[in-house]
Amino acid sequence: MIHAQTLPTGESSPSQPVRRKRTNVSLPSDLLDRAKEIGVNISRASERGLREEVHGAEVRVWVAENASFIAEMNARIERDGLPLDERRIF
Fold first, then answer.
1. At residue 12, does pLDDT exceed 60?
2. Is residue 57 a contact partner of residue 47, using CB atoms and an 8 Å limit?
3. How far is the C-alpha of 43 from the C-alpha of 51, rounded, in Å?
4. Backbone region of residue 55 per phi and psi (left: phi > 0; alpha: psi in -120 to 50; beta: other values)
5. What pLDDT score was predicted for residue 3?
6. Where is region (Disordered) located (predicted)?
7. Contacts of 46 (CB under 8 A, 6+ apart)
8. Angle, to 10 degrees, between the axis of helix 42-80 and the axis of helix 29-37?
9. What's the pLDDT tens digit per position in 30-68?
């Protein structure tokens, strides 16, 4: 099954189709009932939530992997100031 990709903005990009894969998820029944009652697209809502979770996890991994470099750069800036700081006009 191929559908248009949903971009982070929520827009679709028909020029970049994405293969979709069926999966099963367990959701609280009261939440599922409320969502169906008001017409929420469960697949799209789940996809949005999963994208947010994956993005958050990727950010945490990046921060962990780069923590020593960030600390070194912060220490350097604290010690030496910002690069080209003497040329700033504000």
1. no
2. no
3. 12
4. alpha
5. 44
6. 1-26
7. 25
8. 110
9. 999 999 999 999 999 999 999 999 999 999 999 999 999
DSSP codes joined into one string, 19-61: E---------HHHHHHHHHTT--HHHHHHHHHHHHHHHHHHHH
Which amino acid is present at 82?
A: L
d(CA 28, CA 26): 7
State yes or no: pLDDT of 16 exceeds 50: yes
Tokens read off for 18:
């994405």
Rounded CA-CA distance 32/17 in Å is 28
Three-class SS state of 2: strand
Please compute the mean of the pLDDT values over residues 70-83 and round it to a whole number. 94
The residue-averaged pLDDT of 67-75 equals 96
Backbone angles phi, psi at 57, to 5 degrees: -65, -40
